[in-house]
Amino acid sequence: MTHATATPKTDRTIELRDGRSLAFCEWGDLQGTPVILFHGTPASRLFCPDEEATEAAGVRLITIDRPGYGRSDPRPGRTLLDWVDDYVEFAESIALPACPIIGWSGGGPYAMVCAARLPDRVPTIGLAASPGPVTEVPGALDELAPDDQLVAELWDRDRIAAMAEIERQCQPWADDPEMLFREIASADPDDRDTQRMVGSGAVEPFQQMMREGARQGSTGWASDLVAAWLTPWGFSLTDITQEVYVWWGDGDRLVSRANTDYLATTIPRSKLVIYPGEGHSLAIWRWAEMLRALR
To answer: What is the CATH number of the domain that holds 149?
Structure first.
């Protein structure tokens, strides 16, 4: 059975200088060494991949809702670089020392921008099943689904129409946050990653995370798509000078090997770890190893 959970030890919000709320949870050893986890796209702060491993490692795990998700107020037009400002305010508000960040899936770009812009606050990062910049990864645009290619094409000539299409695509999730896992499972019921999720009991905490992510509708997901997919990131991966772990499972159906190789070859001090047979949920099964690598 998995030790994934959606029940944190603390669940709080802080008020940023511009009046917005930013929500975060804490897990594991609250007196331990802090490690930050940036959630995927879409998702929320309400997920710890393995509470038992977190506690055993002496880690105080902190998860944060990005603007528009869960209880964090939206930040209209936000970019990846805007997240750096929010993270600095957050860290200062809770007196957070320099600590590692793990970016899982769509949280990866946010971990990378913090590493690039905040080397004194972020000594190392881990990227679990993380995508690279879609306009830079060879072949990434061609791999997009037809609906996503439509959005990318519209973005260059009609951003109002592009945003309308993004909202149309995100709305079913806002109406039914549990749909994503059902769609993934029905697309390939024999997929090992899906089978492990169902058989381990991880599905319910995963769905709780999704329900919380959609608390404000599709705002968070739509904002993530614009900030990390359609908009230039505003920094180069070569700006990241810290040690970086790039973790990927060769059974991942959501993030390609091309993305993984691009991160591993472009980030100067990267360490590539490929887990045979693991899929997009690899952080659930490899969490203890990931925490050990970052200590």
So the answer is: 3.40.50.1820
Show the tokens assigned to 113. 């921008």
Angle formed by the axes of helices 192-200 and 179-187, to 10°?
130
What's the structural domain count of the chain? 1
User: CA-CA distances (angstroms) from residue 185 to 177, 191, 198, 232?
Assistant: 14, 8, 9, 32
pTM of the model: 0.96
In this structure, what is the dihedral angle of CA atoms 116, 122, 123, 125, given to the nearest 10 degrees? -70
Within the chain, how many helices (H) and strands (E) appear? Answer: 12, 8
Nearest to 74 by CA among 18, 24, 15, 20: 20
User: 1 in a domain, yes or no?
Assistant: no
Q: What is the pLDDT of residues 149-207, one digit of tens each?
A: 889 899 999 999 999 999 999 999 999 998 877 776 666 777 778 888 887 889 999 99
- For residue 84, the enclosing domain spans 10-294
